[in-house]
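pasting for the record
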Amino acid sequence: MPSSDARTLIQAAVPTAAVGAVAVAIGGAVEGGKGAIGAVIATVLVILLMGAGLYVLQWTAKSLPHLFQAMGLMMYMAQILLMFTFIALFKNTTLFHPKVFALALLVCTLTWVAAQARAQMKAKILYVEPDSTTGEKKETQGHSS
């Protein structure tokens, strides 16, 4: 993973982990150990799903740039559907408190999206390939008149 991609990942994961830690503390204070466990699971789930999505999007941007926008939309839709699936599967669990899990999942997801958007806006990413510095001339394409 190039350094700019790793930087974006860190700038999104760290605030999400911090918000997750606050959610764990609040969940533990309000609902006890089960609330804290629900918030931990939600935080880890968001970081894993969103981190994997970011990795796949960066790979798509480099190898299949013509599919980048469609892949981004599909990726976010798949992530949201997976999160709803986790909420539906664990709504009656006794392992952790499901409401704390769902709220922590929502808050951590919103934090990730906001932090990733901020990281992308602050990144200085070239949108035009600079000319080669080796002095080689490129062939001109098309009709010259």
